[in-house]
Design brief:
By secondary structure, the chain is α/β, with parallel strands linked by helices. The chain contains five helices and 13 strands. It has one domain: Rossmann fold. Helix 2 runs parallel beside helix 3 and helix 3 runs parallel beside helix 4. The radius of gyration is 17 Å and the shape is elongated. It binds zinc ion. The site of zinc ion has 7 residues, from helix 5.
């Protein structure tokens, strides 16, 4: 039976590497995967999934208004799909999360969604919230803080190395960067030893 998977992580956990590997595994077996990312993620260019280990994958980019069920159904009608793989699942709308569940239930295609759990304020993204509610299988991809403990908070760091915890969830552009910290060092605002 097909399932809806949500594989969530903090920044720099290697989720893009795992996504690209999963996509490759399907191709290698002669199967037909369909990968997509959000148009809101354009750091590496629109529709490009880029892993820090040096891999990248060109995929379709979907808008917030896109009906993912209809989109997948259309692709599936042309050539049967074996899996749908989504990156940046945190940017999905509530409706899109339900559309992906419909892909699993109606089209019987497994859907694997990768995404961040929380934003730099430590709050759930809309997409992540609904994926936690709807997914059949949930897995945490772990990464570590500079101190060696598990990092599950995403800190937003200004140019003068301060941790910012307030502001708009979607700050597109700007010079701030994001790093994963453990809860203690996120709370203390300590980004290095
Ligand atoms: Zn730490």
């Amino acid at each position: 039976m097909a399932s809806l998977y949500f594989k969530y992580a903090a920044m720099n956990s290697g989720k893009s590497t795992q996504l690209i590997q999963t996509h490759f595994n399907y191709i290698e077996r002669g199967l037909n995967p369909y990968a997509m990312t959000s148009i809101l993620h354009d750091r590496d260019g629109t529709g490009v999934i880029c892993a820090r280990v040096g891999l990248n994958l060109k995929v379709d980019a979907f808008e917030l208004s896109c009906n993912l069920y209809k989109l997948v159904q259309k692709k599936h009608d042309i050539k049967a799909l074996n899996v749908v793989i989504i990156d940046e699942g945190q940017f999905l709308t509530k409706s899109q999360c339900y559309q992906l569940a419909q892909v699993v239930d109606e089209l019987k295609i497994p859907v694997i969604v990768y995404g961040l759990k929380t934003d730099f304020r430590g709050e759930l993204f809309e997409g992540s919230y609904h994926l936690f509610c709807l997914a059949d299988k949930i897995e945490e991809l772990k990464t570590i803080c500079w101190c060696g403990n598990k990092a599950h908070m995403n800190a937003r760091i200004t140019q003068d190395e301060k941790v910012v915890r307030d502001g708009d969830q979607l700050e597109i552009g700007g010079n701030d960067r994001y790093i994963a910290l453990c809860r203690k060092h996120y709370t203390k605002g300590q980004i290095k030893r």
